[in-house]
Amino acid sequence: MRFSDLLVAAATATAYTMNSQVRLAYHGDNGMMVSWNTFDVVKNPSVQWGLSRDRLDKIATSDVSVTYPTSQTYNNHVLISGLRPDTTYFYKPLQLMNSTTDVFNFTTSREAGDNTPFSVAVVVDLGTMGSKGLTTSAGTGVASTNILQPGEKNTIDSLEANIDNFDFLWHAGDIAYADYWLKEEIHGFLPNTTIQGGAAVYESILNEFYDEMMPITARKPYMVGPGNHEANCDNAGTTDKVHNITYDSSICMMGQTNFTGFKNHFRMPSDVSGGTGNFWYSFDHGMVHFIQLDTETDLGHGFIGPDQTGGSEGFTGVDPVNATMNAQTNWLEADLAAVDRSKTPWVVVAGHRAFYLSNTGDTCPTCKDVFEPLLLKYNVDLVLSGHSHIYERLAPIADGKIDPNELENPSSPWYITNGAAGHYDGLDSLDSPRQPYSRFGLDTSNATYGWSRLTFHNCTHLTHDFVASNNNTVLDSATLFKARTCDQDRRRH
Ligand SMILES: [Fe+2]
């Protein structure tokens, strides 16, 4: 091979690994959204698909190929509709950045009311791994427990190793931590750039993350929600102590504020669930109704969301995503009221910030105020969150009161926070003493990164496992029992 050929081959490989970012999302009862990125705009993004790897005899197209200032890529989104439930299809986006012959496959959502047991993987606060994020070294000021040991498997590795054991991956905010670019430079972990050049670093971290995730997201639906690290480029303010400079959102370039990358990159099924953008929506899958909430903006009722201009994070340039007063809670009430518990007995909610946590400084009291009454009124079973980079399993709680039944048929929602998926500079400490409702915790002292696995056994039993990413062992397991009559006639495999 001539040297020039070698260069072309290397460039092709780089283009592929840096830009395709293929990802899936459930879309209604019979649809799948296929998204991927390209360097150039695509006039009609197209996906070939079919029931067999060798016979992709159908094609779905769209006119959605979108970008934003400072982005290095275009986000292409194509909806495949008319699919059968719980069916495996094969597919191939036609305009990937190389001429790959890769054919991917996905399995559509289980019909509401299908009682077949299944598992779901859940992460919050998962950042880029490797040379731009969490690796075996870090910059100044990072605890030695908050890096990976040589050879240690990270959470993306673990999810990939377990991919045949979950139906979809739910990522309830803080995705990639691209806004850590400045912190990582100040720490001496990444080479210094100018503020203007920072946008390219930010985007490179995003691209790296989405490509690292592709072995998972091209095969399993990747359902996401907003976190504070999607909002702006400045990590809610970053201080260079050596030069005594504190940066804020005013340094953010065009396109690096107001959740712009997040809005462009994903197409969550809010249009078919009455929600708003990638911020709040719901979907059914088998015996579960899943709800993604937005704890970052649009709390309504006179509250300013933590990430909104004027909110507690101190961001500027972040607007509400829905102009209608109380849009999110009005939607939530209507969505919960419409759930048919005979079909989907389980209702599981995820929002980025916790209502309850031993680390009270990481909770969102206003989120509790606006959302909890509805979660109680409609008997939500489980509430998941992150934001605090710890793992804490709590008791079922109603307005601060521990449910006396604990996990044996409680009448209030069970709360679990798992922000321990891992990112540059890793884990936090659990506050001590713990709150009375705390039942189990892991933090930086355990130096264990991990993800959550929910297993729905039937209409009465739901198990949550904390899976350690380094060796896939379960470090905490608890099962919730709800006394209700299962409809045994429903479909079982
Ligand atoms: Fe967060």
From TrEMBL:
Keywords: Glycoprotein, Hydrolase, Signal. Residues 20-108 form the Purple acid phosphatase N-terminal domain. Its EC number is 3.1.3.2. Residues 163-391 form the Calcineurin-like phosphoesterase domain. The keyword ATP-binding does not apply. It catalyses: a phosphate monoester + H2O = an alcohol + phosphate. Residues 412-477 form the Purple acid phosphatase C-terminal domain. GO terms for molecular function: acid phosphatase activity; metal ion binding. This is Purple acid phosphatase.
